[in-house]
Structures are given as C-alpha cells and as structure tokens.
Amino acid sequence: MALAPRLDLRQSQSLVMTPQLQQAIKLLALSNLEIEAFVAGELEKNPLLEAGGPEDLAPPADGVDRTVEQHDLPAATGDADQLISQGLGAADSPLDVDYGAETFIDDGPGDRMAGGAIGSGGNDLLSGGSGEAPDFDSFANPEQGLQEYLMDQARSALSGSDLMIAAQLIGQIDEAGYLEADLLETAHGMGVPLSQVEQVLMVIQGFDPIGVGARSLSECLALQAREADRHDPCMAKLLANLDLLARGALPQLRRICGVDEEDMADMIRELRGYDPKPGLRFSTESAAPVTPDLFVRPMREGWSIEINSATLPRVLINRHYYVELASGPQDKTSRAWLADCLASANWLVKALDQRQKTIIKVASEIVRQQEDFFRKGVAHLKPLTLKAVADAIQMHESTVSRVTSNKYLSCPRGLYELKYFFTSGVSASGGDGAVSAEAVKSHIKALIAAETPDAILSDDTLVDLLRAKGTDIARRTVAKYREAMGIGSSVQRRRQKALRGQAA
C-alpha cells in the first residue's frame, strides 16, 4: 500500500468546559463566607461591579439579563447544572463523591458529633443563647494570658540572671501549664549551672496557679497536694501509680499505698478536686462560631427556608459607569477590555443567583424528606443518600454533593451541617424499611446514659434492646457506633462508675 499525503475534512462534536462554567461549578461548593471573599476579589478586578446594600434587594432595571425574576427555575436552565444534569460532568471528577461506597456521605463534622447539634437555633445561636448582644469589648480587650501572668509574678520575685532564666522557662510553658523545656539543655544554652535552673523552676512552681511549671501529670498533682498539705507518703505512692488508677485497679493500689478502702476513697476524692491543667483557666483562645448558610423555620403550613443574607454579598452592575466608558474615546483594545468586563459582570450576577436557587432547591428537598427529624428529633432521622435527593430534584449527584459541602443549616433543633442529614441505613428487624445510623447512635447513647452502676449494659445487651425496638443490628456495628461517639466499653464504664462511687 502506497503512502501519500492527503487532506481530509471531518465533522465532530466535543464538549468543552469554559473557565466560566468551571468556576460556576466550583462556586456551589463554597460557603457564604468563602463566596464573600471571592466576590471581594472580583470587585477589585472588575470596575463595573459594585457591592449592593440591603436597599438593593430588588433587582435593578438596568437591562441586564438576570434570572432573579424567575421564581421557578428548572435545573436544565442553569449553565452549571445543564452540563452535569445530562450526565456529562464526569470529566469534572468531583473529589467529594465516592460512588462505590455507601458511607461516603458520613464524612462531615456533624457525623462525628453525638446528637449532631452544634448549638441552639434561631437568634439565640448568634448571641450565644443568652438573648443579649455579644460583648464586643471583650474581643477588643482580651484577658491576660498565662505567660504574661507568670512573668508579672517573676518580676516581683526574681531579678538579674534568675529573671532571665525564668523568662526562658516561662516561654516554654504550654497553654495547659506544663513545662516543655529540658533543664539540662536550657542550662547549657544560657551558660548557667543546672542547679540554678532547677532553683528558678522551683520558684516558678510556687506561682499561681498552683501546679504550673510541672513536667508531668503526677508532678502537677503533687504540687497541688503539697499546697493543700496532703502530700503524705501514701499520696506520693498513689501519684506514682496513676496508670493503675486509670485502669481501676483499686485492690492493687490499696496494697501499694498500704491503706484501707475508706482511706483510698478519701485520697481519690482529693485527687478529683485538683486541676490537671491549671493553665487553661488563662487561655484566651476561643473557638470560631459556625455561621449558618440557611435558616429553616416552621410555618403554619410547611417550612420557611431562606439563605442567610447577612453573609451573602450583593453584587450589582454599574450601568452608568459602563455607558460613560463606552461613550468616551477608546481604541480596539479598550473596547474589547470593556466588553470582557461587562460579560464577566453579567456572568457573576447570574452564577451567584443560580447558586442561590440551587441551594434552596436542595435544602427544600432535604427538609421534605427529613421532616420527621425537624418535628420529632434525631430518633426519627431517615436513611438518605445524595442520589435520592439528586433524582428527586432532577440534578446530578455531584451537584448535590457540592451544595451540601461546607454549609450549615440552622433550625429550632440546632445547627447542623447539610451532610449530617445523609446517613446510611440499618435494616429494621421486621424487614420493613430501614433506620438511620444517626438514630441508632441516639438510641445507644440514651440506653448507656440510663444504665446504673450495678447494671452496666454490654454490647450484646444493647443489641437485644435495639432489636426489641425494631432495629436489626450486629454487635460489631454497636461497638463501632459506640466508639465513634467516644463511649467506652462496658468494662471501662464499670471501672469509671466504680471510681465515681469511691470518690462520692
């Protein structure tokens, strides 16, 4: 067969994801706070964009083709969802979807919480539950930290080289009050005798709070026992064998300490009154509050679902500025740049509006399918998958996954991550339907909380009790759920209750 060059003309169709379409898909996975940061960057780059205020809730009549005026927007009309609703979004490869596993939906922070609730819902959530506005002065003037507090005491008790050594040691005390420094290395680094460093440490260990500067838990408790004049030889032996106390080996501890049951109970009661982390009372760090992206409130008929507009930025297009620039003198390059700015501004407005409608649509379906949870509690949470919600609203599964990522819902029962409502199911003992894994965890937690010290429930007993309630579950599954909630085994719980009884 002879080889020769030739020209061919062929027709073909291919799918190309534009950068704007890719960005619109990624916007779905961002929370309201992340959207605010993204919009702030767009406002800096595009002179035709400006931030709108509360008075701009109604869409301005500026001639821009927007979808805000459409109340019911089918999924097929959205640019981002048009691609993936037809099964053509596989090239995007969503990282948060594992189609081969049934438990990929249990990877949110809400799944690792007992009960799932983070805080109370409504306005009390934003004000800390007290019904009052937050004290902004407390944020502007934080309390004195542990190291500053110790240095104030060191300046009044030490001077010269001892004060320098104290500053070096105090700087290596962690927030719990424990010393992380090696005394020998500190002495070599500062060129001072080890005995001097040890003497300065003894002075620091006498500072308030008592127990600060300790190098171990036993030393911390020993310092507090000396301050209370309770550090006798029996207490010293008990502090030297805290591992036996943690295991609940009380008979062995009584033999080592040489005391009877009454004295051992008194010593344990004394230890429980000590602070194992004395430095935490000076901690100035506070956990950042979770800001809800959605509000769900009960109405006379149904539920009211709305997006938290306080954290959702409003974006408008300055048509007057565009007309002013377009009517002025400009060359081909400036005209192309201005056209790109207008197209980008129009796209951003449409993409944000489409994102808002998609979130509302997904949240409405979640509330509809989990209505028993919102009305009756976690015990009535149903098994739910991303695919079930996607099929109900005629969207792609990856779209629902993006919408439920990093977003929280506030309702009268508390604050929950959207992925909390997607749980795997446990089959019912009667063979009818299934029970949510979160509902099973709630039952297990309630049963263990109601047990008495003389009737600790084993995993086998929990299985029998759950089956009596209509839940068919294996023993290993009960153990897995119990460990996920941070609850110890029956042996560990029996030892803990015995220790509490000794100290009571």
Describe the protein's architecture and organization.
With 504 residues, the protein is an alpha+beta fold. 48% of the residues lie in helices and 6% in strands. It contains 23 helices and eight strands. The protein has helices spanning 19-27, 32-45, 79-85, 123-126, 136-140, 146-157, 160-170, 183-190, 194-204, 217-227, 233-240, 242-247, 250-257, 261-272, 319-327, 332-369, 371-376, 386-393, 397-403, 437-449, 459-468, 475-484, 490-503, and strands spanning 49-52, 294-298, 303-307, 314-317, 408-411, 414-417, 425-427, 434-436. Strands 3-2-5-6 form a four-stranded mixed sheet, with helices on one face. Strands 1-4 form a two-stranded antiparallel sheet. Strands 7-8 form a two-stranded antiparallel ribbon. Helix 16 (332-369) crosses helix 18 (386-393). The longest helix is centred in the C-terminal third of the chain and has 38 residues, at 332-369. The radius of gyration is 32 Å and the shape is extended. Mean pLDDT is 77; it is low at 55-80, 82-133 and 136-141.
